[in-house]
């Protein structure tokens, strides 16, 4: 699946995609109905069959569209810049990822849909992993490998990746708890930035500790 190819200039197509993101995010693939999506989009029910052939195809494209919209709003250009030090690229990666996760604008529906798909996977997940998630993981892996240098095994790199991503995802998936216990940590854009800076600093200290610890067991 080529995500840019999903952008169709026909207003009905675009409207169906936008509404489908919201309805699927709210109810999930199984509970959402084509009738509800078409009603909210103010189009004929036959439009889904005309443009997408099936509810499953509409869901797959809505999910891909959600990732594409999020990536357009929060591009990883700085993290991709190989001329920058790896430590700085990691900081940019974390900033971008955390702000994307916690976006409360219209993009919040996209994030909610993606979160629901991960929690309740459908057959669309494999395509999304291949086209949208793998490139970001590959970028983070390259950055971490550069920081750890030649000493790092693939298992160590992957454990470091999941540790860093997990720190960010905590604020998304446990947001209802964070909002009740420590709301100041993500109260506004400035607070989110400070939290991103902390995660980056914390992660770099850990990575440098792994790199500099002599005689550590291989992972």
Overall description:
The protein has 219 residues and is mainly alpha-helical. The chain has 2 domains: 3-62, Homeodomain-like (Arc Repressor Mutant, subunit A), CATH 1.10.10.60; 68-212, Tetracycline Repressor, domain 2. The chain contains 11 helices and no strands. Helix 9 packs antiparallel against helix 11. The longest helix has 25 residues, at 124-148. It starts with 10 loop residues before the first helix and ends in a 7-residue tail after the last helix. 27% of the residues are buried.
Instruction: Please give the CATH architecture of the largest domain.
Output: Orthogonal Bundle
The fold-level CATH name of the largest domain is: Tetracycline Repressor, domain 2
By CATH, the superfamily of the largest domain comes out as Tetracycline Repressor, domain 2
Mean pLDDT: 90
Tally of strands: 0
Helix and strand sequence: HHHHHHHHHHH
Distance between the termini: 35 Å
**Helix and strand composition category:** mainly alpha
CATH structural class of the largest domain: Mainly Alpha
CA radius of gyration is: 20 Å
Helix amount? over 70%
Structural topology:
Elements: H1 11-31, H2 34-41, H3 46-52, H4 55-73, H5 77-80, H6 86-101, H7 107-119, H8 124-148, H9 154-173, H10 175-181, H11 189-212
Helix pairs in contact: 1-2, 1-4, 1-7, 3-4, 4-7, 4-8, 6-8, 6-9, 6-11, 8-9, 9-11
């Amino acid at each position: 699946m080529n995500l840019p190819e999903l952008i169709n200039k026909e207003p009905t197509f675009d409207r169906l995609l936008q509404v489908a993101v919201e309805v699927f995010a709210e109810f999930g693939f199984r509970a959402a109905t084509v009738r509800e999506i078409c009603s909210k989009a103010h189009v004929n029910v036959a439009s889904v069959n005309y443009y997408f052939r099936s509810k499953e195809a509409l869901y797959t494209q809505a999910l891909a569209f959600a990732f594409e919209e999020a990536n357009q709003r929060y591009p990883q250009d700085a993290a991709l810049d190989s001329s920058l030090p790896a430590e700085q690229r990691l900081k940019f990666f974390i900033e971008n990822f955390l702000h994307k996760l916690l976006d409360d604008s219209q993009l919040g529906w996209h994030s909610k849909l993606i979160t629901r798909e991960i929690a309740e996977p459908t057959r669309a997940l494999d395509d999304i992993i291949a086209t949208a998630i793998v490139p970001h993981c590959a970028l983070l892996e390259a950055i971490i490998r550069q920081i750890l240098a030649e000493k790092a095994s693939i298992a160590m790199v992957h454990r470091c990746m999941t540790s860093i991503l997990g720190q960010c995802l905590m604020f998304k998936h446990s947001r209802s708890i964070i909002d009740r216990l420590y709301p100041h940590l993500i109260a506004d854009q400035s607070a989110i930035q400070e939290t991103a800076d902390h995660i980056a600093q914390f992660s770099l200290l850990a990575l440098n500790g792994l790199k500099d610890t002599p005689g550590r067991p291989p992972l």
